Amino acid sequence: MNDNLKKILAAREARYQLRLDLHQKYNLPVVVITMNIPGPDKSNQLIKKAFQKFTAEIVKIFTKDNITIEQQIISFTFAGPEAFFVLNYKEDCSNLKKKLIEIEQHHSLGRLLDLDLYRSDSKAISRKSIDRRERQCLLCEEDARKCIIEKRHSLVELNKIIKEIIVQYLEENSGSV
Question: Residue 163 falls within a domain, yes or no?
C-alpha cells in the first residue's frame, strides 16, 4: 500500500472517530459533508475555495430553516475536505435527509458533494431508507457506485469534469476563480 493511500485511509478513520465523538458528546444529529474527488489530490486550492463557499451556504440554509448548529468543524485532510455540523434538530431526520438530497441534486456543486446525515443514535439515514434513487455518475448518468466498481471512466475524465463544475460554481458565486 502506497504512502498516500495510507494517509487517506488514516484520515477517513479519523473522520469516523470524530463523528462518533461528536455523537457521544452531544447526542444530536450530525451532518458530515465531504466531496467526491477521485485520485490522490483531494484538497487543492480550487477545491478548498469551493468547499469553504459551500459550507458558508449550508450554514445560511440551516439558519433559514431555524436549525441551530451546536458545533461546526471544517477541515482539509488527505481524504479531502470535510465538515461536521452537530444540529439541534428534534424533528424526523428523514425530512432533513430529503432536504440534503435536494441540495445534492440541485446545487451547482451538488454532484460533487456528499451530505451524509447521522441520527442522534449515530445511525446513518441512507437514500434507500427514504426511497430515493442512488447517486448518478458525473459522466454517464448511471448508478455512480456501478461506474466506480467497474472503473468505467478514467481519472483524467473525472477530474476534468470536476474542475469544470468547480470553476463554474466559483465564477457564478464570486465573479472570478
Answer: no
